[in-house]
Amino acid sequence: MAGPGGGYLAKKAIGPVRRTFTPWEDSTATPFIEFQNVTKRFGDFTAVDNLSLKIYEREFFALLGGSGCGKTTMMRMLAGFETPTEGSILIDGQDMHGVPPYKRPANMMFQSYALFPHMSVEANIAFGLKQDRMSKADIAARVTEMLRLTKLEAFGKRKPHQLSGGQRQRVALARALAKKPKVLLLDEPLGALDRKLREETQFELMNIQEELKTTFLIVTHDQEEAMTVADRIAVMDAGKIMQCATPSEIYETPNSKFVADFIGDINLIEARVVSKSEDGTIMDAPRIGCRIDSSQTTTVSVGDTVWYAMRPEKVRIELGETETPEINQVGAEVWDIAYLGDVSIFHSRVGEAEETSLRSTIANVTRLVERPLTWEDRVTLSWGRDAGVILSK
Ligand SMILES: Nc1ncnc2c1ncn2[C@@H]1O[C@H](COP(=O)(O)OP(=O)(O)OP(=O)(O)O)[C@@H](O)[C@H]1O
Question: Is 65 a pocket residue for ligand 1 (Cβ < 6 Å)?
């Protein structure tokens, strides 16, 4: 598992230069989409549970969660295909109650198999515009613009079956964007594409969003995808939002064990708070037989059981076991190595307990023929005072 999606870092580097864009931190900014205490029940089952959320104009927002967490239901309510059981949804300040889908300023991008097979790419893109009785000249101009935007200029006359999967997906995108909706809704848009094509298409989506400045809302269960494309992510579980923040905040400072575990790879160490001061918190971690000193000050009390959550790339691994382990240090034995090309993940068994291991990753920056660490090596694992986060829930 790559870290915080090499992608979202690359976004800043290879995409158009992105302005500082944090409207959610501005208490005077008006949200463009607002869920106000929205609940959706299907019979006795609560799919969305009293959920409130604000999304801002031009945001690329991701709803991320496992199967059945309610993310698609959120999107369908926004598009007007479902009605909230309780609460309201506002778009651009207008209550959407009773507004049919086609009158909402939101458009949904459907999977590419929803394209009309007998129509050319151009005709597929023009379809909605014709229904809106746009003039022929305007339709032609818009279709040309959409073909350019989605890099399909060379394919306008082809039928969907004469295109690759990725190209078909771009036609679906062009068709959804042709009417210039204020909000584009994407439900697992890249699910059918292979990994490489999916990554390429993610960057294209980001570039298109930058150019059009449309608000994009994507639903995905793929955390790397969410980390790559989104300005902010809402992590959902059982109809609730567990955390809503930027990709780096979600990755570096998850607010709960659930989010920490859901995003990326993480060491979750059970610990007991021994002392706390303005300078930080000291914990005992009996299962790995060590003491943890964290620079984090928390609201937890001395004696409380907490989880210390630490990303594998924050755990240093060195050959040779220290005789006198210091604080934030523990002796271990390498028992598994996963070579992933760009990084290697070391699973090191700590102490006597067989099931207790810590993971550390090392970036493979040089092309080593001989790896310096191997199975059954005795090693020392160590980390800094700001390596992890203390989680109480
Ligand atoms: N029309 C319906 N009638 C009854 N239950 C429904 C209906 N639509 C959705 N649900 C239930 O609501 C829950 C949330 O569904 P939803 O489609 O929002 O999940 P999801 O997070 O998008 O999951 P997935 O990634 O599997 O699509 C699920 O348990 C689902 O079975």
Answer: yes
Ligand 1 pocket: which of 38, 44, 51, 72 to mutate (most atoms within 8 A of CB):
72
Exposure string over 213-228, b if 16+ CB within 10 A, otherwise e:
ebbbbbbbbbbbbbbb
Per-residue confidence in pLDDT tens, the chain, 393 aa: 334 433 333 343 344 445 578 999 999 999 999 999 999 999 999 999 999 999 999 999 999 999 999 999 999 999 999 999 999 999 999 999 999 998 999 999 877 668 999 999 999 999 999 998 999 999 999 999 999 999 999 999 999 999 998 899 899 999 999 989 999 999 888 877 788 888 888 888 899 998 998 999 999 999 999 999 999 999 999 999 999 999 999 999 999 999 999 998 999 999 999 999 999 999 999 988 899 999 999 889 999 999 999 999 999 999 988 888 899 999 999 989 998 888 899 999 987 666 688 999 988 876 655 557 888 999 999 999 999 999 998
Measured from the CB, is residue 67 less than 6 Å from ligand 1?
yes
| Residue in 35, 39, 45, 63 to alter for ligand 1 test, most ligand atoms within 8 A of Cβ | 45
332 exposure class (CB count in 10 Å sphere: 0-12, 13-18, 19+): buried
This complex has an ipTM of 0.95
The pTM of this model reads 0.87
**Which domains are delineated in the chain?**
6-105+181-260 (3.40.50.300), 265-391 (2.40.50.140)
Assess whether the C-beta atom of 47 lies below 6 angstroms from ligand 1: yes
Out of 69, 237, 241, give the residue to mutate to test ligand 1, the one with the largest number of ligand atoms within 8 Å of its CB. 69
